[in-house]
Write a structure and sequence with these properties.
Order of helices and strands: HEHHEEHEEEEHEHEHHH
Largest sheet: 4 strands, parallel
Shape: globular
Distance between the termini: 72 Å
């Protein structure tokens, strides 16, 4: 009688095999693609930051009644239609898009007083902007002193945010960055695109390596330990949005693959820590079963339906929180009130889904 052969793969679940886990699985509800590492408490103070895709996450969390912090809310007299244009209501502070881990690290070091940006006041026509968040004042400010004053207020609010948050959700976006040569200050966009003037003796292009991303993130965690008096949790995710343009000298497809690969590897490595979870936004959107239908015709903008699919996976593990004045949405009951609340939430999300602000997208204007 021959002995039955066994292998390490014999008892693995369907999700471990490409055929059953991807090829024959619905891309709109992928079983076991995400399993939460820790409970996201309804009472937790959640802070959000990152690349432009992170704006979707912030909006969906708020719509599902999680306590998303906002330490720089819009002034009462500013119409809601102008909130995003002036950098409000996008994230938990008015820092605009934080595309790279180096930007995040420098922000934490600035809060600590261990580092300060240099050459961060750029001219825009006859006005001035903060080069580290160049889009939050679309018309610019009247004087350089105003830029300094606004930045100090911003850093004070970010300090409050970092000290008070319980969970920090950060979306990794890019590895490519523009750097001030003398000081190492990193900007979210190249000088000359939104404001400022490009001078190759003053600025240089850098493309972060796996090692530098790893080191920057480790230094960020060290900085947060100094800022805070208690532990916190993190959820990392990688933006599925490709690069608009690359200054690497390589084809933009190669540069996009490099950037996302480095960031995904870093997120995977750091999420082995017990207080850091990884949520697969990137994998859900770029799943080959979708045949690129997750993107608009530009193949960059993620469609509303795809964003909803991503967040459906998230809220399957972290269910929507019931507010004080409404019942939770029940997956087992589809009464009139339940449908109405579904429709209200869907309308609210759809109205905002196209309004993602992304400085990097402005690079399209420079293509020939």
């Amino acid at each position: 009688m021959s002995k039955v052969k066994t292998t390490p793969y014999d008892a693995l679940p369907a999700s471990a095999f490409w055929n059953t886990g991807v090829a024959r699985e619905s891309p709109y509800l992928i079983k076991d693609v995400y399993k939460k590492k820790f409970l996201l408490s309804p009472e937790a103070n959640i802070a959000t930051a990152g690349s432009c895709f992170a704006q979707h996450i912030s909006r969906h969390l708020r719509t599902n009644n999680y306590k998303v912090m906002d330490v720089e809310p819009p002034p009462p007299g500013l119409p809601e239609t102008l909130h995003q244009q002036f950098g409000y209501s996008m994230y938990s502070a008015r820092y605009g898009n934080i595309y790279t881990v180096r930007q995040l690290l420098q922000l934490a070091q600035e809060v600590l007083g261990e580092w300060g940006p240099k050459n961060f006041i750029w001219k825009k026509n006859d006005k001035y902007v903060d080069a580290l968040r160049p889009a939050v004042e679309p018309e610019g400010l009247d004087t350089p002193d105003e830029v300094v004053e606004h930045r100090q207020y911003h850093i004070d609010r970010v300090r409050e945010l970092f000290q008070s948050l319980d969970v920090f959700i950060f979306t990794l976006g890019l590895t490519e960055m523009w750097v001030h040569r003398p000081s190492g200050t990193v900007y979210p966009t190249a000088p000359g695109t939104i404001a400022g003037e490009y001078d190759d003796t003053e600025y240089q292009f850098e493309n972060a390596s796996s090692r530098s991303v790893h080191d920057d993130f480790g230094s960020f965690l060290v900085a947060m330990e100094k800022i805070r008096s208690k532990p916190f949790k993190m959820i990392l995710t990688v933006s599925p949005v490709p690069l608009t343009a690359t200054a690497s000298g390589h084809h933009v497809l190669l540069s996009t693959t490099y950037s996302k690969s480095v960031l995904r590897a870093a997120a995977g490595e750091w999420s082995t820590l017990p207080f850091i979870d990884y949520f697969p936004s990137y994998e859900i959107v770029t799943n080959p079963r979708l045949h690129s239908t997750a993107f608009s015709d530009s193949l960059r903008t993620v469609r509303d339906e795809a964003v909803s699919t991503v967040m459906r996976h998230f809220f399957a593990e972290h269910p929507a929180v019931s507010s004080h004045d409404e019942e939770p949405l029940s997956p087992k009951r589809d009464g009139r009130g339940n449908r109405k609340r579904h429709q209200q939430r869907s309308r609210k999300l759809k109205q905002s889904a196209e309004d993602v602000q992304c400085e990097e997208a402005l690079l399209e204007a420079f293509q020939k």
